[in-house]
Amino acid sequence: MTDTTDEPLLRTDRLTRHFKIGSALSRRTLHAVDDVSLAIGAREIVALAGESGSGKTTIARLLAKLYQPTSGEIYFAGRPLSSIRSRTDLLRYRGEVPVVFQDPFSATNPVFRASHGILRALTLHRPELSRQQRYDEAQRAFEAVGLAPAAEIMQRYPHELSGGQRQRVGFAQALAMRPKLILADEPVSMLDVSIRIGLLNVMADLRDKQGVSVLYITHDIASARYVADRLIVMYAGHIAEAGPVEEVLARPRHPYTQLLLSAVPDPRAELHVTEETDKGEPPRVIDPTPGCRFRWRCPLAIDECHSVTPPLRELVPGHSAACHVARADAATVAFR
Amino acid sequence: MSSVRADADPQPPGARGQAGPVLAVRDLSVAYAMDRGAVLAVDRVSFELYPGEFLGIVGESGCGKSTLLFAIAQLLASPAAVIGGSVDFKGVNLVGMTDSRLTAVRWRDMSVVMQSAMNALNPVKSIGSQFKDAMKAHGVTSADEIAGRSAEVLRMVGIDPVHLKSFPHQLSGGMRQRSMIAMALLFTPDLVIMDEPTSALDVVAQRSLMVQIKNLQAELGFAVIFVTHDMSLVSHFSQRLMVMYAGQVAEWGATRSVFDTPRHPYSIGLMDAFPSIKGERVPLTGIPGRPPDLSRRQQGCWFAPRCPQVMAVCTETNPDLYPVRDALVRCLLYAAGADGAGADRAGADGKAGGD
Question: Does B169 touch chain A (CB under 8 A)?
């Protein structure tokens, strides 16, 4: 999972981000991300899954240094991000940890050729390259993400590319900077079903052939299972459960993970609609009181859940859940 | 594969009981007038929908599924226009009907739930006043009746009637979409047309909304046409499934049959494009290539350039819809004279092995 050293590629320590909302007279605090400690190793795809409003995009923005944390710290290769002060350091970090955005249609400039963004990025992030080297590097990146013939596609304008091709351009742009970790925020959700798999395969290729790690943010558990090594499930700003993807999906410990899995449509399975099929949605976490944030929807909630916020506990090696009632033997089942 | 599902309806297309269809679409074609000439977005689509039935229409973006819905509801705007065929709703052809006559049908007998409730609802009006507008437009003037019915439909979709006073931004995405459905049910229509109503929702909210639609349908007996790009979503809820590609019906049959033994290479590809959350983790390929550009009409099958089973004849002959057991498939593998039965068996075995 990680390198020979103990320090993972990227690690967060009690990362927290709050937003102030409301007017001056009714100041309230939205807890978008609370107390999140996660680690991403080298050559690893970690899926961050959760419903909208669960805080997964806020985490991506914190990791990309688009937001400052309210508290907590992010360590990249052992170095705290708060120590990044100079523009040079920031550029280098953004080159090592680039972002691929959700919407490939608005992430490319329509008046420039497909090669424009990647050549600009190379000029900015790798000024040592000559013009010809930049072009070669861009071509290499285009080929690595399956855009062939690269030379021809680089000359096209965005409207001449399909959605899947545009998203590949996004990945090529990230790859050209020789990144260590790509932050991919819902990279396939805007694409057609028949095209998504191709992009997921590109991510797996980048891991296997280029040694790049990916934080894959998604609401689609099935695609997370397809491509990721580990899965982190978010609920209302907290990590609900984390572990190896197969282990979490086969034996989900947190009632929310169980609910999420029960709702995934599976054409090959029977439909069973039970009484406890739930109508709730993740809460907007405004000025929360202590206690589990899932307790209002949880059929297993006990008194403790209403007063004590459950910490993320390791139940079996590598697999943790933030739940007072979850047990190592996976015998507590709220939803199936 | 042998399990029996309560919601499954194995009846083949057209083999219904005595009741006539609530909707009969015949050879419906829609074209967009473009600079380069007409682009055929919907190409001779025919189907019948019976009272209380749930028809799923799936396909990728640009396959014509939304255009088909708009054509059925007579909501097409220039440059799109119906260029052929008929839409018989309760025995009356809607194509060419004047706006004033359509107004009487719309919402009262047939309602539409749009994809994005946030955009379909008026942000500066409360939910209740939007319900009121819809009812007044159809001649309901009694304040008591409006208030009573508004509260009733909202309760039906599981929302507390206090939210009649709420504005759209005060509701969650799921509640907005539910209130759109409540609005569609104000007049107890015979047909509700839904264009990806759940695509903005999370899986949990999506599932509960689907269950709710199904329950309301059982209770009130309206027919549903449900358009989505997510094939797995309708797998448990629709009785019949239509797979569209390039404006045409690629495959059409009982939902379980299409899922268990897809025949058209495109349907097979779509089925294999969904990673499963259970079962073995297998490498998938999706479908290579991209959907065709409909403005470049080509000879032969639209899917031929992406088809793994393409034959020489596919680029010359336009395929028709051929019956294959309980489904209709637009693929020359199943044309009379071709070894259709053999291809069918191969497809079925392939699926069973992949499960």
Answer: no
Q: Tens digits of per-residue pLDDT, A210-252? A: 999 999 999 889 999 999 999 999 999 999 999 999 999 999 9
Neighbouring C-alpha atoms within 13 Å toward the C-beta of A326: 28
The pLDDT tens digits for A64-89 are: 999 999 999 999 999 999 999 999 99
Of B173, B202, B237, nearest to A219 by CB-CB distance is: B202
ipTM for the predicted complex comes to 0.79
B21 Cβ under 8 Å from any chain A Cβ: no
Distance in angstroms (rounded) separating the CA atoms of residues A17 and B309 = 53
pLDDT at position B271 is 84
Query: What are B224's two structure tokens?
Result: 């549903």
* Whether the bond into B161 is cis, omega within 30 of 0: no
* Closest CA in chain A for residue B287: A194
pLDDT tens string B191-236: 999 998 887 778 888 888 888 888 899 999 999 999 998 888 888 8
Q: Could you give the CA distance from residue A204 to residue A177 in angstroms, rounded to a whole number?
A: 18
Q: For the segment A27-58, what is each residue's pLDDT rounded down to a tens digit?
A: 889 999 999 999 999 999 999 998 878 899 89
* CA–CA separation, B257 and B263 (whole Å): 9
Dihedral angle over CA of A22, A28, A29, A30, nearest 10 = -60
**Taken in order B111, B116, B120, B124, is the CA torsion positive or negative?**
positive
Instruction: Give me B137's structure tokens.
Output: 């437009």
**A vs B: CB pairs below 8 A:** 124
Average pLDDT of the residues in A269-289: 67
CB pair distance less than 8 Å for B290 and A266: no
In sequence order, the β-bridge partners of residue B193 are B112, B225
Distance from CA of A107 to the nearest CA of B (A): 19
pLDDT reported for residue A269: 67
Assess contact for B84 and B29: CB atoms under 8 A. yes
Would the pTM of this model clear 0.80, i.e. be above it? Answer: yes
B250 touches B330 (CB < 8 A):
yes
* Distance between A120 CA and the closest CA of chain B, angstroms: 28
Contact A271/B236, CB-based, under 8 Å? yes
Q: Which residue of A has its CA nearest to B208?
A: A279
Chain B, residues 233-252, CB within 8 A of chain A, namely 233, 235-237
Any A CB within 8 A of B287 CB: yes
- Write the secondary structure of B144-175 as one string of H (helix), E (strand) and C (coil): HHHHHHHHHHHHHCCCCHHHHHCCHHHCCHHH
Q: CB A193 to CB B231 under 8 A?
A: yes
Task: Mutate one of A279, A286, A294 to test the B interface: name it (highest B CB count within 10 A).
Answer: A279
- Mark the ranges of chain B whose per-residue pLDDT is less than 70: 1-18, 117-118, 337-355
